[in-house]
Amino acid sequence: MRNGGQLLVECLIALGARKGFGVPGESYLAVLDALHDTAGRLDFVLCRNEGGAAFMAAAWGKLTGQPGLCFVTRGPGVTNASIGIHTAMQDSAPMIVLVGQVGTDMRGREAFQELDYRAVFGTMAKWVVEIDDANRIPELLSRAWITATTGRPGPVVIALPEDMLSGPASAPALTGPARIGEPAPEPAALAEALALLAGAERPAILIGGCNWTEAGRAALQGFAEASDIPVVAALRYQDMFDNHSPCYAGDLGLGLAAGVRKTMTEADVVLALNTRFGEISTEGYTLFQVPTPRQKIIHVHASAAEIGKVYIPMLGIPAGPNAFVAALTPVHGPWADWRKRARADYEATFALPPQPSPVDMGLVTAHLREVLPEDAILTNGAGNFTVWPNKFFRFGPKARLLAPQSGAMGYGIPAAIAAKVACPDRTVVCFAGDGDFQMTCQELGTAMQAGAQPIILILNNGTYGTIRAHQERTYPARVLGTDLHNPDFVMLANAYGFHAEKVNRTEDFPAAFARARASRTGAVLDLAISAEALTPRQTLSQMRATALATKDPK
């Protein structure tokens, strides 16, 4: 008779899982033992820290639409992994965290590394469950898979008591995942939505979410272009719409462009597709008035719980994004100049002054736009440096961006590794600040062992740039806790088997990047960036001078 660990692994394979990311622990040894015989069917990617493993699982879910699997041990293991759980929740990315637990005979005693998972993760994850009968593993795992992928996708935490894994399990394994159709719009609601758009003077489409299909994205682009309506992406979902389309008008991200703000505030009808209204994508809930916006909002989301959560829409439609756009027919109205202005404002954002830095990231990003393949995957963590992949790269229909809506530092490297595990033949480029890089640089060991080595660009300016900028704007010239003394990143990367170079001048970057692309072991390029170049259009000195003048106008 199989044990619970074997039953769990058989069910995961039947559901379609092929990779899992984790750090071993004694609390789930039976699962590790079951994975011993599944090479090529369900592979375990050994990570260096549970936070890195959870980031990889979250990125896998965002990239593939299938739940990213994270295997961690109880207590310290899963609390380390909590950063990835939080990131997956804010990203609406499907993920399943399988965590060991003390035996059922010890629960409630504060046994070694014991946690009440429902209490700890109840508000962080979409669902939390603890298995108390090994024969319920198929039932609860199927429910977890469905929960993680439907409605608003998100992370599920499954606690696995040791005796549930090592003890016998007689239940038959799952034979496959449930087939669940995406909810389609009710015909009357669809007709009303089209009528609202047709009656607009300045319509706009706002998109987000990671559960778009290729066909759904193509249908959305076809509708937008046939209707000549500008499309704006929510924070870090600009890869969900072809940026080369004449209808693409930018993103509601950090460092909001004036043109995008104008598009959202002046629009009279906004079709919000598959997006939640987060703080960043609403500029602190100011782009739309709470709770009743001036704009007529049509909110379409697969989860009815998202509709009306912050804003009262003119029309709410509980429907999946792909099913909804497949049912749309073009609308027409007097807004051609409106769309052209929105697009022109977006195009204008690429005009940059020279950057006061040994390596000019404006020119670097322009070079990457020219040489990267159309299916490149870009990743980043958090920091001022993210403006370059987020604002100055154009994502075509095959390119992808893996970046955290939670603003979690350290996400970029694990996400890039997960992308190379999922798509080994694609070019994956991670943008990382020097502080951001050091949050998860130990995962270079994971990359080396898994043979999943991306190209990593370290924007090395010797400071925690985002916080330094806030310091200079709020407490000018009073710098504390933001300057970094860094190791030799080239030597560090070499120790992990990566090709690595220091790039000290802009003109040296193209050749260095060509060598990085040619490397079979991945590459780390340490770019010399001046702290003065904290933002593309305002230097550090200018920030300080402006703040000092404001505080002392004399």
Describe the 3D structure.
The chain has 554 residues and is an alpha/beta fold. The chain is 37% helix and 16% strand. It contains 21 helices and 18 strands. It has helices at 4-15, 29-35, 50-64, 76-91, 117-121, 137-149, 162-166, 187-198, 214-227, 258-266, 321-326, 336-348, 361-371, 387-391, 412-422, 434-440, 444-450, 465-474, 489-495, 509-518, 540-551, and strands at residues 19-22, 43-46, 68-72, 95-101, 127-130, 155-161, 203-207, 231-234, 248-252, 269-273, 296-301, 315-318, 377-380, 400-402, 428-433, 455-460, 499-503, 523-528. The strands form 3 sheets. A 6-stranded parallel β-sheet has the order 2-1-3-4-6-5, with helices on both faces. Strand 13 (377-380), helix 14 and strand 14 (400-402) form a beta-alpha-beta unit. The chain starts with a helix and ends with a helix.
Keywords:
six-stranded parallel β-sheet, 554 residues
Helix-residue proportion: 25-40%
Number of strands: 18
State the separation between the terminal residues, measured CA to CA. 83 Å
What does the overall shape look like?
A: globular
Could you list the spans in which at least 5 consecutive residues all have pLDDT below 50? none
Contiguous helical run count: 21
The strand line-up of the biggest sheet is 2-1-3-4-6-5
**What summary fits the major beta sheet?**
6 strands, parallel
Share in β-strands = 15-25%
Structural class: alpha/beta
Average pLDDT confidence is 96
> How large is the radius of gyration?
24 Å
